[in-house]
Amino acid sequence: MTAGPGHDRGGVVPVTSGAFGVVWGLVRGNAAGWGSAEVLGALVLGVALVIAFVLWERRAKAPMLPMRFFRLRAFATANPANFCVFASLYGTLFFLAQYFQTVHGEGPLGGGLRLMPWTATLMVCAPIAGALADRYGERAFTAGGLLLQTAGMGWIAVVSGTGTDYLEILPALVIGGAGLTMAMPAAQKAVVGAVRPQEVGQASGAFMMLRIFGGVFGVAVAVFAGVGGYASAEEFGAGFSAAMGAAGTGGAAATQTAKPALCAPSAPLCGPLLRPLYAAPTSALHPSERLVPRGRPAPSQGGHA
What we know:
Elements lengths: L8 H24 L4 H23 L13 H30 L5 H7 L1 H4 L1 H16 L1 H22 L6 H28 L6 H18 L1 H9 L5 H25 L13 H8 L27
């Protein structure tokens, strides 16, 4: 943890309440209506409390999540990519099993078995990607894996239908699964490797929270609710294709956020959002709080060598 006695109690309340408000609004959106006072109120209040949390953390002596982390390019790009990956992943996992049962007529066991080529890649690709990322760096595996995920979900969106054979979908499952299992460990390694060892818990906590938020966001679920339904195999198939297209879009968005240039302070896309986090000059920080790029020695505090 960051130096300083006690815990960041002032940060716990707004971030917990803000997360609860955002999650409540997202979960209740389809049932209560996205324009209802309940959903809009929860989302607005949640976002306001999260903003209050950011403002508090910028001034706290021992912040729960130091905002200076966002000046680290790896941290500031891998976390949004992580969010987009899980926003598409959860929707994909939710609908694929139902697709095999509703459209292909498989039972629960048959639907689960047909998912194995997608999920089994975790046991093969993740350890290999994690080991190779140590040698070649995380960026290539994160971006490359997300491109494979986008290609796999796009493939399924194009070919899926009531008459689609399983073998037409199988290569896409393998490609998409391999991409995800390449990107996830590389992104997590990039996040925790960007901070000092005593700050790994804080960085990992932010990474995991955004992962859960991505799952709750469920872009694919929202698209399905607006396009498809369960009345017939044809109606479900139409919604499923739209959901897979949304999952592919999420993967493409994650690939873009994995490019460091897009999240630099001067970048046109997200620079205006992140620029306030870069605003505090490094010279204003205590020497122990300054970020030192990996591979460079920390500056000496006792004069020139």
